[in-house]
Specification:
Helix content of chain A: 40-55%
Number of helices of chain A: 7
Oligomer: heterodimer
Strand order of the largest sheet of chain B: 2-1-5-3-4
CATH architecture of the largest domain in chain A: 3-Layer(aba) Sandwich
Distance between the termini of chain A: 30 Å
Distance between the termini of chain B: 41 Å
Number of strands of chain B: 11
Shape of chain A: elongated
Number of strands of chain A: 4
Number of domains of chain A: 2
CATH topology of the largest domain in chain A: Glutaredoxin
Helix content of chain B: 25-40%
Number of domains of chain B: 2
Strand content of chain A: 5-15%
Order of helices and strands of chain A: HHHHEHHEEEH
Largest sheet of chain A: 4 strands, mixed
Structural class of chain B: alpha+beta
Structural class of chain A: alpha+beta
């Protein structure tokens, strides 16, 4: 994707909000949803459109874990490592994911299908150990169940069950 | 209005901070992140004092707490000393080689603290005074980036910041001298950028960057005198003053 296209698309997304600094987070979230990360050019466009200095935009982006400055895979796996999940063996899930996909937390598979993240708590402790893929939750996971879920996404046919 | 600081009655203005009133009355309150040019940052918390207001005792940051009633202030007691000591121990683990921290530790009777791993390279306590200075200049070249243990002061993408004019306000306000810059051969290198400096028309000292002078002209118009360094400007004004009173026959 060339730079001017990113800039143009970003402006379209940003323009759904009034050009006021208070919409910074909302605009960034929309762009993150669109590209699965925040391209540098987008930040420049947002900075100019909302009249927020680029350094502040960058400060906000690096503050929140929900934002990423590097491209992410098509499917983002978030493994919960909150207290309940940790005790229920969330680290076994990480090991299993590494065995299946060959990636560590923070990495993306070579085919660009999956990214893996560890998050602190996703508020579904009753389902521990739990993970999210994109917007869907998968609870009470075992390595075998996890394998099946990943397989279904790998085939590419899996539609997010809301 | 009248307030009481450490048992002594002193005059205070409505709305001024406790720290201001204390300073004027020669009462010392330790500070780290306080700058007279950029007051009220209130991040270091070393200036904590205890006050009694409307019968309620509480501890507040004296650099930002405005005097609005006839309060009673205590600047030093067991509890406050303990708070300051704890803070300084934490600052020491962040920036053990900072002269300012060491001076404050000595003054507040804090011994070296070995329970935490210290970062010997770091001098920054993340008070944010540099960011405030940059913001006040209107340049917005630096900001606090990342979060938690990784938090630091930096430029976007760790690249040279486009709006930076190399004025060095950040480095000059830094209480722990954590911001590095290098001046040599008429240049100043700071935040990954190198600026050409301008010489004072009177003494020849390099005193500001070209970008800084251009920025000041752009903001203030052509009628400001920034051809000379600060010392020479003061000298020139003093000479004019002496000439003027001599002419009046003193």
């Amino acid at each position: 994707m060339d730079l001017s296209q990113i800039k143009q698309e970003t402006l379209v997304v940003a323009s759904t909000y009034k050009p006021e600094p208070r919409f910074l987070l909302a605009v960034l979230q929309d762009i993150q949803r669109k590209y699965k990360y925040l391209p540098k050019q987008s930040l420049e466009v947002v900075s100019e459109y909302l009249d927020v200095p680029l350094t502040k935009v960058y400060g906000v982006v690096t503050f929140y874990k929900a934002f990423s400055l590097t491209p992410k895979g098509e499917n983002i796996i978030k493994v919960c490592d909150g207290t309940a999940c940790h005790i229920k063996g969330s680290m076994n899930l990480i090991t299993e994911i590494k065995a299946v996909l060959g990636i560590d937390p923070g990495q993306t598979t070579a085919d660009g299908k999956f990214s893996l993240e560890i998050v602190n708590c996703i508020g579904s402790c009753a389902l521990a150990p739990v993970m999210m893929i994109n917007e869907s939750y998968y609870g009470k996971l075992t390595p075998a169940k996890l394998r099946a879920v990943l397989e279904s996404y790998r085939e590419g046919g899996m539609v997010d069950a809301k | 209005m009248e307030i009481i600081i450490d048992g002594k009655k002193v005059e205070a203005q409505y709305g001024e901070t406790i720290l201001e009133a204390a300073k004027r009355n020669d009462v010392y309150i330790p500070t780290l992140c306080h700058s007279e040019a950029l007051p009220g940052l209130a991040t270091c918390r070393l200036c904590m004092v205890e006050i009694v207001e409307n019968g309620v005792t509480k501890r507040v940051a004296s650099c930002s707490y405005p005097i609005q009633s006839e309060i009673e202030v205590v600047t030093d007691n067991e509890k406050l000393r303990r708070i300051r000591k704890t803070l300084l121990k934490l600052y020491y683990t962040m920036a053990p080689n900072s002269e300012m921290i060491r001076k404050l530790m000595e003054q507040q009777d804090v011994r070296e603290f070995n329970r935490c791993k210290v970062d010997t390279e770091n001098k920054c306590t993340l008070c944010g005074l540099c960011v405030k200075a940059c913001e006040t200049m209107g340049t917005n070249a630096i900001y606090t980036v990342f979060r938690g243990a990784a938090k630091k002061v930096g430029t976007p993408f760790d690249e040279p910041s486009e709006p930076c004019i190399g004025c060095g306000a950040c480095a000059s306000v830094c209480p722990t001298n954590a911001i590095e810059y290098l001046e040599e051969n008429g240049t100043r290198a700071i935040w990954g950028k190198t600026f050409k400096m301008v010489q004072c028309k009177a003494c020849g000292k390099y005193f500001a960057t070209e970008e800084e002078i251009a920025y000041l002209y752009q903001k203030l118009g052509d009628d400001i005198d920034i051809k000379k360094c600060e010392t020479c400007r003061k000298k020139a004004n003093a000479n004019r003053f002496i000439a003027a009173i001599k002419a009046e026959g003193f």
